[in-house]
Specification:
The structure holds 2 protein chains of 2 kinds.
Chain A lengths: L1 H27 L5 H6 L5 H10 L6 H13 L14 H6 L1 H29 L4 H15 L2 H19 L16 H34 L2 H8 L4 H19 L1 H18 L5 H10 L3 H29 L2 H4 L1
Chain B lengths: L1 H15 L6 H13 L2 H5 L5 H11 L1 H24 L6 E2 L6 E2 L1 H4 L29 H37 L1 H16 L2 H20 L11 H29 L3 H8 L4 H37 L11 H9 L7 H28 L6
Antiparallel strand pairs in B: 1-2
Helix pairs in contact in B: 1-11, 4-14, 5-7, 5-14, 7-8, 7-10, 7-12, 7-13, 8-10, 9-10, 10-12, 11-12, 12-13, 12-14, 13-14
Classes of the chains: A mainly alpha, B mainly alpha.
Chain lengths: 319, 362
């Protein structure tokens, strides 16, 4: 167990270094001289050198990277190019709770809707319930998040126009507050972001459940005369859930990717929205910081799902 | 002695794969074909490839999807030249010039007098908020999607097979490299990586690639960058799959037989391993095509792919989304087309996976 964790941790370290290096080197080779751009018509040699020093851009690349890594540990992502005196972390600070809220609700929804749907389908395998459910899930899974977002927006607008209600299709309420207007803002984006992952989990859960229900120990449990509920929830479900845990990291990754579209289309000022805006102003440190934050979050999610896996499945410890 | 080994190994191989036979096999067939009467020849059992294709043909969902996809490709390729010859001359209300269909049925012709028009004889699917013909933009968008998807898949398959086979067959350093690279790519959500690269290098790609003929002009230059990055993100997964298959294949008896009879490694890889991988790679590539199309559309939707005046399904969705309250039609049309393409590729890929699965016998 300890050996496994140490091994996993070394792998994690390697990946984090790789991810940060890629984001760093992108910014390093980014076209245009940001300092020159910032000075504009106020350019003179002394100011140029001084400003370059302030941003640490006069150092060789490996020192820049080292500083970049060191600063990451204190959540210091450097200074913004666009808003000259503001730190990147200050710019992103307002977006973090919003994105976190969007992501957590979507993940929660994924689990509490996707898994039961999959279980239902497995228990009613090959009936009309199963077929309908799986067809809907296949379509939800295949349709891109942004298309779904657009369809939902069109639907909301249509409801608005035909009933005179005023349901918003953009912006976000106060983070972690749930008054009626907040819920109106948040409901649609969360559902749309979760939809793809819900479909993924429903399909996966169905497969796993059917696999487990075929096993001998389920037959044994039934043969012992256990009630069907106990067979399903105590014997089958627990084992079917094990592989689900390993895919949590993948689900997190897909949610992070989807968040860009959701925050763009619904005009949500989360960190993905901020990053997209900063692309227009060529504020590279903001893009880099967003990428690093999200990528590291996904890496940690993967690690967490691995650890959970070893906790849940005792067979792993033997290896 | 030597020839007998080759024969045995070919038979073993032929029994387990669906593909074009070895040259050695063909020559053998020709010899026997001359000796046997024609009737005997046609009665020989179907090759695994024919079996798979027969199974695929029987899958209605996959066949309908294939039909729709072929239709889309045809529309994208031959639709625009035909469409630009339909319709009479027309007076532009603002400039006062008379323009023919080759102008107003062009995907980047902006007719500001005809903004947000509904479907009509002149504009079959209406116009967008700049007075551009939606059908013309749609056809261009499909063309862009399919072009990018094919480009990425060629990149993906070539790199995936070559690196994957080398890693699986030889192991060692190249295997280590592949494993580490895949680890990083797995951790890095693909879309995030593309957004970062396209966001930082997009504008320089515009100026750098705009001189490339055919694909460069009309705002499509950036797609080349997006295509390359999509390829970089996708290939490690194909390579890992190929590596796993290669590891299995190289333990098979026919490879052992080939090695015993003194076949070189290069020949084993090219003749015995790569052909056995093809069916699984084709299935993966088909399923990847839909991911690639969604990826390209998404990047264009975020404003990082096609630049104006170019068209892409994602760009059309982004443009239409700004008008969603007053003219939802403009955003729904590209959404439906994109959904249709993606679903068709999914169904086709699913059908192919079932058909090529050696375990599924009718």
């Amino acid at each position: 167990m300890v050996q496994f964790l140490v091994k996993r941790f070394i792998g994690l370290l390697f990946v984090v270094v790789g991810v940060t290096f890629i984001t760093f080197i992108m910014g390093y080779f980014a076209p245009g001289d940001p300092v020159l751009l910032m000075l504009g018509q106020h350019y003179n040699q002394a100011a140029y050198v001084a400003l370059k020093h302030v941003y640490g851009l006069d150092l060789p690349w490996y020192q820049q990277y080292w500083n970049y890594l060191k600063n990451l540990f204190t959540f210091n992502f450097g200074l913004s190019y666009e808003y000259k005196d503001r730190a990147v972390s200050a710019i992103l600070a307002s977006g973090v709770p919003i994105s976190l809220e969007l992501g957590s609700w979507a993940l929660l929804l994924t689990l509490i809707v996707g898994l039961p749907l999959g279980i239902l389908s497995a228990l009613k395998a090959n009936t009309w319930v199963d077929t309908t459910n799986m067809t809907v899930m296949l379509i939800l899974f295949a349709v891109p998040t942004f298309v779904l977002a657009v369809f939902v927006q069109v639907f909301i607008v249509w409801i608005d126009q035909s009933t005179g209600a005023s349901w918003p299709v953009s912006n976000w309420g106060t983070p972690w507050h749930y008054s009626w207007s907040d819920i109106q803002y948040k409901l649609a984006p969360i559902i749309v972001l979760a939809a793809g992952a819900v479909a993924f989990y429903a399909r996966l859960m169905r497969t796993q459940m059917l696999e487990v229900l075929r096993q001998d120990y389920v037959r044994t449990a039934r043969a012992k005369g256990l009630r069907e509920r106990i067979v399903i929830y105590r014997h089958a479900l627990r084992n079917a859930l094990i592989p689900i845990i390993t895919t949590l990291g993948v689900a997190l990754g897909s949610l992070v990717g989807g968040a860009f579209f959701i925050e763009d289309l619904f005009n949500i000022p989360g960190i993905a929205g901020i990053a997209l805006n900063s692309i227009g102003t060529r504020d590279y440190p903001v893009i880099q910081a967003t990428t690093v934050i999200l990528a590291v979050a996904v890496v940690l999610g993967n690690l967490l799902s691995d650890i959970l896996y070893t906790v849940v499945d005792p067979r792993i410890k033997v290896e | 002695m030597d020839t007998r080994k080759e024969q045995g190994q070919d038979l073993a191989q032929g029994a387990m794969l669906g593909r074009v036979p070895d040259p050695a096999m063909i020559s053998m067939d020709e010899v026997s074909g001359m000796a046997e009467p024609e009737l005997e020849r046609s009665k020989r059992p179907a090759t695994p490839l024919q079996d798979s294709l027969r199974r695929l043909r029987r899958d209605k969902r996959a066949m309908v999807s294939l039909g729709i996809l072929v239709f889309m490709v045809l529309i994208a390729l031959i639709g625009p030249p035909i469409y630009q010859h339909i319709g009479g001359p027309y007076v532009n209300q603002i400039t006062g010039q008379t323009v023919g269909p080759q102008s107003y049925h062009n995907y980047y012709y902006e007719n500001l007098a005809d903004q947000d028009q509904g479907p009509s004889a002149q504009y079959w699917l209406g116009t967008d908020q700049l007075g551009r013909d939606i059908l013309a933009r749609l056809m261009q968008g499909i063309l862009v999607s399919i072009f990018v998807a094919l480009f990425v898949e060629v990149f993906d398959v070539v790199l995936g097979i070559s690196i994957g086979v080398l890693a699986g067959y030889y192991g060692g350093l190249i295997d280590q490299f592949l494993a580490r690279f895949t680890d990083i790519m797995l951790a890095f959500p693909g879309l995030l990586f593309i957004i970062m690269v396209a966001g930082i290098f997009g504008s320089s790609a515009d100026s750098f690639f705009s001189h490339v003929p055919v694909i460069g002009p009309n705002g499509n230059a950036r797609l080349l960058l997006v295509g390359i990055v999509l390829g970089i993100v996708i290939w490690p997964f194909t390579a890992r799959l190929v590596r796993g298959q290669t590891l299995q294949l190289k333990e098979q008896q026919f490879v052992e037989a080939a090695r015993t009879s003194g076949t070189t490694n290069t020949r084993i890889i090219l003749r015995h391993i790569v052909p056995n991988l093809l069916s699984i790679v084709v299935v993966t590539a088909t399923l990847n095509l839909s991911n690639t199309i969604v990826g390209e559309a998404g990047i264009s939707l975020l404003g990082l792919g096609v630049q104006p005046p170019g068209s892409s399904l994602g760009k059309m969705i982004a443009d239409g989304a700004q008008n969603i309250t007053s003219y939802p039609r403009e955003v729904i049309i590209p959404c439906i087309v994109l959904t249709l393409i993606v679903l068709c590729f999914c169904f086709l890929g699913d059908g192919m996976r079932d058909a090529f699965d050696p375990r599924s016998k009718d």
